[in-house]
Amino acid sequence: MKLVMKTIKAFLLLFMFTYSASANEEIGFIETYALAEDREKAIQQLIPGTEDFYYYSALHAQTSGQLNKVEEFMEPWIKRYGETQRVQEIKNRQALIRYSQDPKGSLDYLRRVLNIQFNHQQQKLDAKPNLPTALDPATVSWEAFRATAFRNSNNLSQVSDRGLDRIIRDNVELDGKRRRDLLSRLIYPDYERLVGLIAADLRTKESGGFGEFRIHRNLMPEQLDELAGLNPQLEDNVNFVNTRIQKLRPSEDVDIELSEEARDAYLNRMWDYVKTLRPSFNSMKTHVLYRLLEHKRDKGEYPRDLFLSYLKLPRSVPYIEPKYIARQEMRSVQSDLNADFRSVTTLPPVGGDESLVKDYLLHFFVEDESFEGFAPFIRDSYLKPVFAEAKLVNGIGDPERWFSLISPSAVQSLKDRVDIEFAKTNPKNFKLDDEVSLNVRVKNVRDLIVKVYEINSLNYFLDKKQDINTDLNLDGLIANEEKSYQYDEAPIRRKNEVFSFESLKGKRGVWVVEFIGNGMSSRALIRKGDLQLLTRTSSAGLIASVVDGNNQKVEKASIRFGGKEYKANDKGAIVLPFSTKGSQSVIVTDGDFSVLSRIKFPGENYVLEAGFHFERLSLIHISEPTRPRL
After folding, report:
1. Separation between Cα atoms, residue 419 and residue 98, nearest integer Å
2. Angle at alpha carbon of residue 596, lines to 595 and 599, rounded to 5°
3. DSSP for 99-159?
4. φ, ψ of residue 295 in degrees (nearest 5)
5. Alpha-carbon distances of 387 from 312, 375, 380, 382, 384, rounded to whole Å
6. What is the mean pLDDT of residues 569-579?
7. 560: phi then psi, degrees, rounded to nearest 5
8. Contact present, 249 and 342 (Cβ < 8 Å)
9. Cα–Cα distance for residue pair 260/247, rounded to 1 Å
10. How confident is the model at residue 122 (pLDDT cuts 50, 70, 90)?
């Protein structure tokens, strides 16, 4: 009882403070209300719906003993004005007035408002503790923790990432919401039941489709195929198809631009997959097959079956047979040659394909007796001139027969045309010990001059700040080598000639080989040798090591950037100071050989982290604090 009285006294003090605050307000209607003989009649002077109206109506109901009527005013009052100070005052009065009728309700109200907690325990001196000495295995088991997490939440927010691994491996049954939460947090796909969970989620209306979660894109190729078997609709899903193609890429250690075998395998893997796709993916089919045909041609191979498969893909190009693409089934599935799939295949868009198509036709027409095999897909007006050209430039059959296929002006144009073309089969890269030879197609050239210029790459990089290309100005330069060749072939005939450059064997450097004849010039850029950078970050800066084309460490290399040269130390490491964050162009040099490369510099971010440990008894009071300084 003493505790209750203390609580009520504390509340009365709070109430008196509240009332005294309002008493300082300007005296107005409160005097009218206090002195009125009929207070109910006085309240009628107030405008209904105002806070004054609600306050004095509730106050009058309390003072007149009509406590139940107070609630009728409280609901609209709070709804209109919220929990104001006057509202709280009436509530406090109501709790105190009702104490005699409902003590428990009033005390509960006071505990809630005053935040009173009775959680103190009596302290007993010399009492022996009676605490548990062991944990109940049932309360600390995996099943108990999982049950608690599922009971407290309808998702997996109370389950750690390690717990997710246990849930999926133990085949714990999950509802739709928990299953989606699980899939949204998974990173690695090494779970046997993962494909089934994803397939079940994709069938729900809540699913955002394939690609919604990161785990979708992290599935292994075999898992993607299994998922497609469970959900055949994915064969029409662009995100699924793109992900499946991305899984066909070679590893990060393989460069398809440098390895012909790796590029061949990659392109064949992609074509084996995309050729099974539906016509809605014709743009992707065209993209992949074009690059495969291009690769085969560069190897000197011309697969007729693949070429015919390419011609069957509907494309909006000038040489296509109009009747073929006018068919109903072809109109809505035409390929877009400008579609950019680099994010999927890493290969550039096709753009135009006429050059490749013509190369294949010229190759086939050397031996083909007619062009009828390609007539269903290519218009006659395109096939006839190409067929005649293939026969005429190679000196096959009766020229008059081929002249009849083209106009006299086209015949004269073909005779006058000058060709100094590099064959597509020429290697793209030369190793240090490789012999350098170039296959060149020469037509309508009597005298051919071949010049070889060795380029001082270091001076060029320092001057131009860009990589060497065939468009550099050679005026005023003296060729290191120069040879002349004479040809007696008719102007309409074309000759394949192989030029060897023995002087370049075993040398590192950059050379421009220029072929000049009958007013035309063609250039080839020959690079032999390579220098590559390996970098790591240290407190002193960026540490760079240089390796050559055989992946052997170069001990005495140097790097130039920012107008300075940084040389390797006795361990072959080059220390570069931190520079502007981002990719920077640098010149890597080993002796008289240099290459232009790029280094990605990290941004500077200094952080001091320290921990201090003191024994409690060693801490003493000092007037001036000790502050660390960097």
Report:
1. 110
2. 125
3. GGT-HHHHHHHHHHHHT---------TTPPP---SS--TTTSSHHHHHHHHHHH-SSSTTS
4. -65, -45
5. 20, 12, 10, 9, 5
6. 87
7. -110, 130
8. no
9. 20
10. confident
CA 156 to chain centre: 27
Judged against a pLDDT cut of 90, whether residue 618 lies above it is answered with no
Picking from 618, 623, 597, 593, the residue whose alpha carbon sits closest to that of residue 542 is: 597
Distances (CA, A) of 484 to 442, 449, 516: 14, 4, 9
How many Å apart are CA 156 and CA 308, to the nearest integer? 54
Element (H, E) at 332: none
Where do we find the tokens 């004005």?
A: 81
Question: What is the DSSP code (8-state) at residue 277?
Answer: S
Q: What is the pLDDT of residue 357?
A: 97
Asked if residue 361 lies in contact with residue 383, where contact means CB atoms within 8 angstroms, the answer is yes
| Tokens (6 digits) for 526 | 């020959």
Q: How far apart are CA 243 and CA 226, in angstroms?
A: 14
Closest CA to 497 of 435, 439, 451, 427: 439
Alpha helices in 366-493 (DSSP H): 380-393, 399-403, 408-416, 457-464
Q: What is the pTM of this model?
A: 0.72
Q: Which residue has the tokens 């002077």?
A: 45
Please give the full DSSP string across 542-563, using - where no structure is assigned.
EEEEEEETTSPEETT-EEEETT
387 vs 378: CA distance, rounded Å: 12
266 touches 250 (CB < 8 A)? yes
List of residues 6+ apart from 400 with CB closer than 8 A: none
DSSP 8-state symbol, 315: B
Q: Which residues pair with 499 in a beta bridge?
A: 438
Token pair listed for 535: 């970098």
State the Cα–Cα distance between residues 168 and 33, nearest whole angstrom.
72
For the chain, percent of residues with pLDDT exceeding 70 = 93
Contact present, 523 and 479 (Cβ < 8 Å): no
Question: Tokens standing for 316?
Answer: 């909006």
Contact 356, 391 (CB under 8 A): no
